[in-house]
Amino acid sequence: MSRERIEGAAQKVVGAAKQTIGKATGNEKLQVEGLADKVVGSVKETVGKAKDAVHKATR
After folding, report:
1. CA 48, 51, 56 angle in degrees (round to 5)?
2. What is the pLDDT of residues 13-48, one digit of tens each?
3. Which end of the chain is more exposed for a tag (fewer CB within 10 A), N or C?
4. What's the angle, vertex CA 23, arms to CA 20 and CA 25, rounded to 5?
5. Could you tell me the maximum CA-CA distance found in the chain, to the nearest angstrom?
6. Are 1 and 41 in contact, with CB atoms under 8 Å apart?
């Protein structure tokens, strides 16, 4: 499993937590940050999956 894939999954979890806390406290900035972290995490995870597939295909 590539580093990007792991980092992306972790960033998605952090983003979800930020978004939930932001909603609970009425902090719109934290909600937006959480959403952005989730999106960036998803992109990193997708890149990691692609790298894993390329690595597997070239074995």
Report:
1. 125
2. 999 999 999 999 999 999 999 999 999 999 999 999
3. C
4. 110
5. 50
6. no
State pTM to two decimals: 0.86
Question: Minimal CA–CA distance to 37: which of 6, 11, 10?
Answer: 11
Q: Give 1's DSSP letter.
A: -
Whether residue 37 contacts residue 12, with contact meaning beta carbons closer than 8 Å, is answered with: yes
27 CB burial (10 A radius; 0-12, 13-18, 19+): middle
Q: Which run of H or E residues covers position 45?
A: helix 28-57
What span, in angstroms and rounded, lies between the C-alpha atoms of 54 and 42?
Answer: 18
